[in-house]
Amino acid sequence: MLDLGLLLAQLVVILVTARVAGRMIRPLGQPQVIGEMVAGLALGPSVLGVVSPGTLATLFPPDRLLPLATLSQLGVLLFMFVVGLRLDLDLLRSRAPAAVAVSQASIAAPFALGAGLAVVLRDQLAPAGVGLLPFALFLGASMSVTAFPVLARILTERGLLGTRVGAVAITAAAVDDGTAWCILAAVVAVARASKGAVGTAGAMATFGITLLTTAAYALVIAIFGRRLLARLALRHTGRGMSVTPHVVSIMVVLALASAWVTDRLGVHALFGAFLAGAVVPRASAHTTPDGRAGLATEVADRIEAIVSAVLLPIFFAFTGLRTSVALVNAAGLWVFFVLILLVAVTGKLGGSAVAGRLTGMSWRESTAVGVLMNTRGLMELVILSVGLDVGVISPTLFAMMVLMALATTMMTSPLIGLLQRPARNRTAVTTPAP
Fold first, then answer.
1. d(C-alpha 61, C-alpha 314), whole Å
2. Can you tell me the mean pLDDT for 126-154?
3. Per-residue DSSP letters for 267-334?
4. Which domain holds residue 78?
């Protein structure tokens, strides 16, 4: 039975804590989302459970978390829908060579290193009964992700969005989003197939069917769904009409229905929500006569406000409730965490930087791109939550990976500041006096 009073108290505490933490983190040069992530961890067993276990048990009793979990999942689904809506397909095409090279290197290098690390970690940190293949695939995928929304915010705050570094990084991150979620879809399919079928041959057959049906669904929604949505866009934004609540509700139904389909196909629901957003017509094709944005952008603006302000802090808090740093309770486990962090940074930052250099960028520019691509943030937490839900990773490894996501995201702004500073000083010295 729903305890409405408890749920309201939980929401008030979560939202106030997230808001305060977000404000407090800004003077340190960090985006607000870092504060919200820290707030989520603070409300869980890692901090509140240590400082006041009675308060944690009263405010977040384990048997009363289902409503919070439901709101958390709804928030992530709508967030992935917004990520798909924000995916700039024209930008991908116009900056394809450098961006695709950086993106694929920033996925391939950490994926390979993460999969290799899985061999070392499996005996100590993999759940019982999980095969090496799904464990290695998931660890590789979780090392490969870039937090597109956090990256966009950092680029805006640093004034880098219009620079070559910013353009390559934001485009490569957009490619990363699509690629990483396709990889994750395959990983979840492998994990579920290995649990649901008897023997390797049966598991691979199940995975093959899931892959083919998902690809067919993606093709259908990309062709026919996009055509239907194009008519909707022409009817509303194309004729100077504002996006009404009726249109927004249609878009949300589309996202939820697509999420349901991919979940039934054996792939995670988040992939379906992302795919639904990606096929909505872009602003470049449907801009109103008065210059207003098209269907995808306007719908994203309407949904993102409530998602960012309310639902994502709930997701951070629910992630924090599932994360216990106390599980990393031995020196050997902290060694594993350091190894995870080194592999994550080496693969993501190093792979992106080398790819950027090979496409003609200077070492300073390519290193800056690598630092930006190393931003994981919210996207990493979403993927980790999927892995924990499907049983591919253990709670201990989940805690380690959450800490890795926080560390790699927090290091982005300071490192970018260091890379920008010498360039500014050099410009000031070499500019002739008037």
1. 16
2. 85
3. S-HHHHHHHHHHTSPPTTTS--TT----HHHHHHHHHHHHIIIIIHHHHHHHHHHT--GGG--SHHHH
4. 68-416
**Given a cut of 90, is residue 398 above it in pLDDT?**
yes
End-to-end CA distance of the chain: 75
Segment 107-136, tens digit of pLDDT = 899 999 999 999 999 999 999 888 888 899
**Is residue 389 included in any domain, yes or no?**
yes
pLDDT tens digits, residue range 79-95? Answer: 889 888 877 666 556 55
Q: 83-116: b or e for each residue (b if 16 or more CB lie within 10 Å)? A: bbbbbbbebbeebeebbbbbbbbbbbbbbbbbbe
- Within a domain: 53: no
pLDDT for the residue numbered 9: 96
What's the mean pLDDT when you consider all of the chain?
A: 83
User: CB within 8 A of 327, min separation 6: which ones?
Assistant: 333, 395, 396, 399
DSSP-H helix ranges across 95-163 = 96-125, 132-144, 148-158
> Is residue 176 within 8 Å of 146, Cβ to Cβ?
yes
Total domains in the fold of the chain: 1
In a domain, 334, yes or no: yes
The pLDDT tens digits for 227-283 are 888 877 666 655 555 678 888 898 999 999 999 998 888 777 888 898 898 888 875
407 burial via Cβ count (<10 Å: 0-12, 13-18, 19+): middle
Residue 219 CB-density burial (10 A; 0-12 exposed, 13-18 middle, 19+ buried): exposed
pLDDT at 14 over 90: yes
- Residue carrying structure tokens 């795919």: 275
Mean pLDDT on 396-424:
86
Q: Is 166 among the domain residues? A: yes
Mean pLDDT of 396-410: 93
Q: Which long-range contacts (CB under 8 A, 24 or more apart) does 407-410 make?
A: 407/341, 408/341, 408/344, 408/345, 408/348, 408/374, 408/375, 408/376, 408/380, 409/33, 409/34, 409/37, 409/147, 409/150, 409/375, 409/376, 409/377, 409/380, 410/30, 410/34
CATH code (residue 390): 1.20.1530.20
**C-alpha distances in angstroms, 79 versus 146, 195, 305, 372?**
15, 29, 10, 21
